[in-house]
Amino acid sequence: MTTVSGPPRAVADYARLARDVLPAAAWDFVSGGSGTELSLTANRQALDSLYLIPRMLRDVARISTATRLAGTAAALPLAVAPMAYHSLVHPDGEAATARAAKAAGVPFTVAMLSGTPIEQVAASGAELWFQLYWLRDRGATAELVMRAEAAGCRAIVLTVDVPRLGRRLRDHRNNFALPEHVYAAHFRGEAAVGAQRSRDGGSAVATHTTEMFDPALSWRDIEWLRQRTKLPLIVKGILAREDAVLAVRSGVDAIVVSNHGGRQLDGAVPAIRVLPEIRATVADEVEVLVDGGIRSGTDVLKALAAGADGVLLGRPILYGLAVSGEAGVAAVLALLRAELETDLALAGCRSLAEAARLTTCELPNPSGRTSASS
């Protein structure tokens, strides 16, 4: 095990520290991918193979990282990605993450499978988005949208790449089930606690989601949802340009180019690889966000140069939370901000708009090495 000496200086340091403090099964749940984890590994390799061509003599004495994402003001081109069960890694759970996001000035996406109800998370004062999976009970889906609106959420994020859960072999081998203190706080009865019991000798989480999620989700349902909320609608999980076109036709406000952090279809292309094509396809008709393997401010800059309006940050948030709760999340976000500001200056960019005009190229990734931990 690599030891971090002194205070963490990079997000990868938080990953190593989190692995030291989390139970092995919880670490696997957070950091693992599906199948042979081909896509999980490829996400990092794709980012490591993408290089920036900086500009010089551009007067970068003043730099701005401020933007708006899906209508929400953001101090960075970044929102916290939807991730289930923050209380699995720290007892303060989503409330701590939301407070850190508020302090950093970035939106926090409350997962449908949050361990803390949206109403309690809203007490943080953070700018909140709310994530949905499509439930077999359409009435329950509509009820969650109404709860999100009543709690003051600024956008709905519909994750569309989970008609069923990917085979996350680490969880199956661990017979992973949530501990008793962790449950789906937006539900009641068996729907809330179903992931606490492994009923088939495999992953209790996989069994639970299979029972709850509706695999019949289609573009017609996106249109149904669009008609039932005035909030900006973000569709997460797009990789094909054809689906990006359909998303625009369905009236969404933004798409997230994503392979679910390598946790769904193993072998799905890294999002950063198809981002330029999707950006060119949709032009400025909708905002385009991206996730998958983002581990540094340099990665954020690469995403902007490749066509993204912003990124979603996932696992590093949970690593910071596991290490030191709210302070850990705040430290991760502060590191990313410092890195992004430095890299913008070094690339000759005073603003995110100038970053979007940077040129990139691809070079071989030496020996398949990745620059950061999962």
Automatic annotation (TrEMBL):
<dbReference type="InterPro" id="IPR000262">
    <property type="entry name" value="FMN-dep_DH"/>
</dbReference>
<dbReference type="InterPro" id="IPR013785">
    <property type="entry name" value="Aldolase_TIM"/>
</dbReference>
<feature type="domain" description="FMN hydroxy acid dehydrogenase">
    <location>
        <begin position="3"/>
        <end position="365"/>
    </location>
</feature>
<feature type="binding site">
    <location>
        <position position="263"/>
    </location>
    <ligand>
        <name>glyoxylate</name>
    </ligand>
</feature>
<feature type="binding site">
    <location>
        <position position="133"/>
    </location>
    <ligand>
        <name>glyoxylate</name>
    </ligand>
</feature>
<dbReference type="InterPro" id="IPR008259">
    <property type="entry name" value="FMN_hydac_DH_AS"/>
</dbReference>
<feature type="binding site">
    <location>
        <begin position="291"/>
        <end position="295"/>
    </location>
    <ligand>
        <name>FMN</name>
    </ligand>
</feature>
<feature type="binding site">
    <location>
        <position position="260"/>
    </location>
    <ligand>
        <name>glyoxylate</name>
    </ligand>
</feature>
<keyword id="KW-0560">Oxidoreductase</keyword>
<keyword id="KW-0285">Flavoprotein</keyword>
<dbReference type="InterPro" id="IPR037396">
    <property type="entry name" value="FMN_HAD"/>
</dbReference>
<protein>
    <submittedName>
        <fullName>4-hydroxymandelate oxidase</fullName>
        <ecNumber>1.1.3.46</ecNumber>
    </submittedName>
</protein>
<feature type="binding site">
    <location>
        <begin position="314"/>
        <end position="315"/>
    </location>
    <ligand>
        <name>FMN</name>
    </ligand>
</feature>
<dbReference type="GO" id="GO:0016614">
    <property type="term" value="F:oxidoreductase activity, acting on CH-OH group of donors"/>
</dbReference>
<dbReference type="InterPro" id="IPR012133">
    <property type="entry name" value="Alpha-hydoxy_acid_DH_FMN"/>
</dbReference>
<feature type="binding site">
    <location>
        <begin position="82"/>
        <end position="84"/>
    </location>
    <ligand>
        <name>FMN</name>
    </ligand>
</feature>
<feature type="binding site">
    <location>
        <position position="236"/>
    </location>
    <ligand>
        <name>FMN</name>
    </ligand>
</feature>
<feature type="binding site">
    <location>
        <position position="258"/>
    </location>
    <ligand>
        <name>FMN</name>
    </ligand>
</feature>
<dbReference type="Pfam" id="PF01070">
    <property type="entry name" value="FMN_dh"/>
</dbReference>
<feature type="binding site">
    <location>
        <position position="159"/>
    </location>
    <ligand>
        <name>FMN</name>
    </ligand>
</feature>
<feature type="binding site">
    <location>
        <position position="168"/>
    </location>
    <ligand>
        <name>glyoxylate</name>
    </ligand>
</feature>
<comment type="similarity">
    <text>Belongs to the FMN-dependent alpha-hydroxy acid dehydrogenase family.</text>
</comment>
<feature type="binding site">
    <location>
        <position position="131"/>
    </location>
    <ligand>
        <name>FMN</name>
    </ligand>
</feature>
<dbReference type="GO" id="GO:0010181">
    <property type="term" value="F:FMN binding"/>
</dbReference>
<keyword id="KW-0288">FMN</keyword>
<feature type="active site" description="Proton acceptor">
    <location>
        <position position="260"/>
    </location>
</feature>
